[in-house]
Protein 1
Amino acid sequence: MLNEGKKIYCDVSKCLGCRSCELACAVEHSKSKTLFNAIKEEPVPIHRRRVQAVDEIIISDACHHCEDAPCISACMSGAMYKAEDGSTQHIEEKCVGCWMCIMVCPFAAISRQTKLALKCDLCKDNEKGPQCIISCPTKALISKEV
Amino acid sequence: MSDSEKSIDLATKEMLGLACNKNICTAFDRHETMEPECGFGQLGICCRNCVMGPCRIDPFGEGPQEGICGATADTIAARNLVRMIAAGAAAHSDHGRDVAHTLLTTSEGKTKGYGIKGKEKLLNLAKELKVKIENRKIEEVAHDVAEKCFAEFGQQHGELQFTRRAPKKRQEIWRKNRFTPRGIDREVVEIMHRTNIGVDNDYQNILQQGIRTSLGDGWGGSMIATDLQDVLFGQPEPVRSVSNLGVLKEDEVNIIVHGHEPTLSDVIVAASQDKELLELAKKYGAKGINLAGICCTANEILMRHGISVAGNFLQQELAVITGAVDLMLVDVQCIMPALGKLATCFHTKIISTSPKAKFPGVEHIEFSEEEALPIAKKIVRMAVENYKNRKKESLNIPKEKMELVAGFTSEYVFKMLGGKYRATYRPLNDAVISGRLRGAVGIVGCNNPKIKHDWAHIELTKELIKNDVLVVTTGCSALASAKAGLLVPEAAKKYAGKGLQEICEAVGIPPVLHMGACVDISRILTTLCNVLTEGGLGEDISDLPVAAAAPEWMSEKAVSIGFYAVASGIFTVLGLPLPVMGGKNLTEYLINSIENTVGGKFAFESDPLKAADLIVKHLDKKREALKLKPMMYGE
Amino acid sequence: MNYLIIGASAAGISCVEAIRSIDMEGKITVVSDENYPVYSRCMLSYYLAGIIPEGKLKYREDDFYRKFNVNAIIGKKVDAVMSSDKKVKLSDGSVLTFDKLLIATGSRSKMEKIPGIEKEGVFGLRNIDDARKIEKRLQNSKAAVMLGGGLIGLRAAYALHKRGIKVTVVVKSKHVLSQMLDEEGAKFIQDKIEKEGIKVLTGLAAKEILGNKCSPRIHSGVSEANSVSGVVLENGEKIDCQIVIIGKGVQANMELVKNTEIKTEKGIVVNDYLRTTVSDIYAAGDVAQANDLITGESTINALWPNAVIQGKIAGFNMVEKNIKYDGSISMNSVEFFELPTISCGITKPKGEEYEILVRKNIASSIYRKIILKDNKIVGFVLVKDVDKSGIFGLLLKKKINVSSIKEVMMGNNFDFAKIIPLIKQYKSEFAEKEYSEILI
């Protein structure tokens, strides 16, 4: 895998809050993988990355793939697991939407779809790597070793 | 993306390879660095019309669904869209205004280098505009015609003159829906007012003004530009020429004219034939002065003087990279600011000429009609002087060039179908009625690095002529067809369906007809009106088996064109969607329900074969409604 | 090292994983009285509701024991722990020894002493056997009564409703979910489930469970009047039903430590290292009575995430890692009819020292209540808009003074970024690298 042992960080000094990463994330996790079609899909693709702001800081944030991930301990269906590359991954087929992971995620980085939790998967199925990084016009999002 | 995926044009591919080796950036590369492009912009749901924002609507529903003022995605996308129409219509119309100005000053004897070459056209226009002809000098008539056209821009009420060229039914639709433009400039201004914060927020009402403005372009500004250019520079007639970068000559002074207005380039043609300057060229070791065009300026001087074409929009930088261009003079529209920096790597001089269009790092020699010829000569002299600075080692002229026939107009070509002595549209109408021709489609518009250069133009054009559809073309699409060898009569045998082939062979025309520059899309409108007048094909443009397509569009002008086409009742297929998809109701309206009002609608289809299929189905639907005969040569 | 783990649910399995993450060599034995692969008890109501098939109850792969090199003794019960001998006695009389023992025997439904409770058709919902029996009886049932309006009762009620059964929930308290929620928060849920067709009777208890002759459609062969036919309430009202589910809370399975020095109260008492009062013997999960992170009291917060973390820390400490447990948190997450609710900590504060922040919108079922003490979050209830609950949980766990963000916490746009200034201010509290990384 291209992103082995890597996580996505946001350099807050560079983030302008354009939300391109959110769009790229939603498109990557859509069925069609194209913006023009993704916006028409049902259910609407949900982005797992969110641009947030406080005071002067703008940050694009998503799952931090915590070392000691509380969402994994909380997951009663065995959907959430630590992958060999250190990333926290989620098997959507196993998820029942009990929201235990939402309850314990300190970053509020897990989204809800009907009966399904969704989170950053580092675009593991895309050989080009995380689409949010590619989409970032100021290169605020970077991939670094864990 | 590899170079072979960027274009289907061999000269372009060769030059891109060269640019890559020389580490030179072109629009193709810059497009790649720009990717992925901002999704909000593509969907049309970012609003910067006031500074409470910028506001963006989350197209995936989680984030804001309304701007700070409460504007929805539909409102925002509609406002942005009509501002594009305003800009596009303004560009075409301002071009028209400049031509009217040239005609006016020429009629007053104040210009050097112009005359009234299209006398017949002038007299016809005078009749149409109710200008007195009898017992008057041609200059006096020209003066009044120019003033009448000028007045169209500033008119505050009433209806634009040329909208009356449209079929009665069409005029009624426009009146009923408040689409009839009152004055060309007024409509543009009203768009800017309506899209100001807190004015017009109903997307359909916003579009109403967008449509009115676009009609002020198609049946106003553009039409004035076309007609008055014909008056000043003469009616084009079919003419043979050559296209692509291979037209540049190793042993001659190469001058490229690039942009959109023929006012300067037309006198450049004269200046380049100036004996003194030719002598000077020889003195520097050049065998002559070679003029070539890019973009619509190319189309203008091609169809009136047979001047060869160097390339279309995405080839402007490549022309410089040949190292063979001694001077490129530019006027307005579609001129990349990148040229200035690029030219510093070569001996090429870029000269801007319009007070409206200056470029960083580019020398400016201001053009004025009053001193047109002296200025033109000065510029040609600069080119000649610059010939000696050419670097042999930087010279890379691709071999590719292609024969073409250009310059078909509404006045000329369709009459030609009837034979020289029986000037009439009848045979054309009969060909459609009898099922020899399926219909006609205008393929127009730009290049866009999002789409493989020229590919969509050519695929769509070929597919349509294969289906016995007569294609008329303008702008950069026309230049694509020229380079692909579709603008020669022989192309009919090679690519056209049997019915179209028979017509082309009988009359000796290509299956794809070059009708001029992008303002000359107005020629297509006039042609359609003539076809309707001839009879047998319905009462309104929306009855006709016709369609329009802009497979590689990129400019705001194309948006304006698209709207006046649709509002004139023409089904219009765009290769890239309008930036409105974030406004779902607006999008639905544009690709569907707008048809109930104007009889035309948009389709967005990037696959040229699928686009062709949509068009053929549309033509067949119209044929069926007119109860025309089945196609003569089957499916 | 010879590890023995009694119980194969959340705490037991996570203990195995923790031990094996350090000690690849030691012998691990797991004893479970249930004859199934590793499955998730909390998912039983989803199975019963028909949302997932039985196979999806498994939350670890079938080859879990093999992969972790565990000697699994399943289908056998540990009858007694002989703490001084470091042995346990199994139901079949055999004896196992250990160096380190984890008791993770969990809990069971409290069965009340109501006349008729022994009848066919009266169930708890604690294990896969219960679920299968209910599932079987469903086919010939039209109505069911839940005794108890706690989580188990409501989840079972929701499941049976989904299966087309007419369900009545009988709650002794003033409102449903009285352990988890305050009255206001509970009202949202009660209104919702009633609107969807589940009947809720509050302030009432059952007096008797009635039975009749086995209905001819139920071929269970039970004797006369032994199959549930209805419930009589305290007020004399009679509800016809074929199923009764008891959801009156749980009690720890700690009989196996009777007659040992292991101290028990509500459950097996453990210290901050999950050790019982006897060295080398640990307890985790629903059976363990540990310190509550918020109140500091020793109590049982029977909840999956607590059990997993306790099992994990117990496991580490069994391999002598000496890791301190922060304490358990009472929290829970439920969703009925697409109305999610998450609560945590103190939800029904009593006393002047608490400050309560509330944001409520009845029309859209949004409820956010945050309970503060000395400007620190000690509890919260979120209905519908639950997505940010983890941030509140983080602030609660880290005991951060939130006086500077009170307003923003209750605002529409509260998100993780809003606590970045606090993370900067209280750097030492946010020592984990996930937080320091944000400030690059």
Note: Residues 440 and 546 of chain B are 5 Å apart (CA to CA).
Protein 2
Amino acid sequence: MQRGTIFLTIVALGIGVVIWLLPERQESHDLPPHQLLRDIIRETRFFSTDEVAAMLINRDPSLHLVDVRDSTAYRRFHLPGAVNVPLADILKEGSLDLLSGDEQTHVFYSNGTLRANQAWVLTRRLGYKNTYVMRGGLNRWIETIMEPPVPPSSASSEAFDQYDFRVAAGQYFRGEAAAPKKKVKTPPKVIPRRKKKVVASGGC
Amino acid sequence: MGPLVPQGIIGPEWDFIIALVIGMGFGFILEAAGFSSSKNLVGLFYGYDFVVLRVFFTAAATAAAGIVLFDYFGWIDVEMLYVQPTYWGAAIAGGMIMGLGFVTGGFCPGTGFAASSIGKIDAMMFVLGTFLGALLYGETYPLLKDFVNSGYEGGIKIYDTLGISRGLFTFLLIVVAVGMFYLVPLIEKRVKKPEY
């Protein structure tokens, strides 16, 4: 037998023994605070009400709305397709299962931003990645989508496009037929959505 | 610090560029290692050439040892690596179809592309068959859906299932790989490589 083969065998087995005897590192799987901070200050964790409305209208199958208000408020009004997970129940087994789909975009909302943010921080610490917050919550939803303010006549054309979209979206969500005479611009075709991570799969 | 992509150190917009570079390197190595020849590849099934087994065991043992050591040094966080979820039904049926295709076609998907890039007509037919198979699968997916998703276990790991430590499992993998390197030449000596 060649000396090189024997040498390589000894090296390989030696590395194997070292690996076997390595102590297991004890680490908490919670997100460390500095990483959590980095994620908290990142703007991309927010969805605007316009983005959520566009995704709902386009029936984006990846959108998964999570209403973190209590069940009474949920029964009174909630966004179409939203599931109700009150903030107090968010750590329960069944609630966390709802967030486990990696291919879905889980968007928390409450009346304002605060409770949705709290839900976001909790789930983020537990390692859920595709969770987002609808900024402004239902209050801003009413202000912007259901009752959008008319922009001043000096506003930019983007502001008017946005206003037209909001009016159309408001009609859509109220279930009204589109106003026949007034020309309603179609919502922008570009759907703002987060890039999905493409998971490399194996194979030879 | 690692893994680089899941932590966002390398953004998702680089995914395709990284995939392109790795893919070209992978194809080049396959071709350089003689994996574009179906005679070398199917030798594994007839017992005259175990180069495929050697390469894959080397890759598995090296990667496993590297990941454990990198994790110990704190260079990567193993918990953040993606683990392909286990579906028992699909894994068993897919493995059998893959093996059957491998021994009859003489290539596995990656080597089929490597061989067709150097102009092998049988490999081009193999690649065409791959696409037809993918099309057939896509068209019949509604019928197969329940079976494909059966036996879901999530991202389980073999050392958790066996109840041993990761280090011990890696050690055993290296022992099996080294043992294989000593055993397969004995088989290769007994089986005569057929002349075509």
Note: Residues 10 and 16 of chain A are 10 Å apart (CA to CA).
